[in-house]
Fold this sequence. Notes:
This protein is mainly beta.
Amino acid sequence: MTTTRFINANVIDTRNGKVLANQQVRIQDGRIVDVSDSPLEGSDDQVIDIQGHFLMPGHVDARIHDRARCWRCRLRARQGCR
Length: 82
């Protein structure tokens, strides 16, 4: 199980249209499991300080959906698909 904790993150809350400053975000096996303005415990976590940077959950895979929309696009990826 891989666990990463981002500290000092500015999290963009797309539901409420706000930026949550100085948050800690825990990612476990590719999914967000905790977001907190208080320190999160976890001695086995890989900790990454991203002070001054932003996290925008939900937009990680945004660019892959274009080609995934049709199977012909995947087959003709080198030729392009329109």
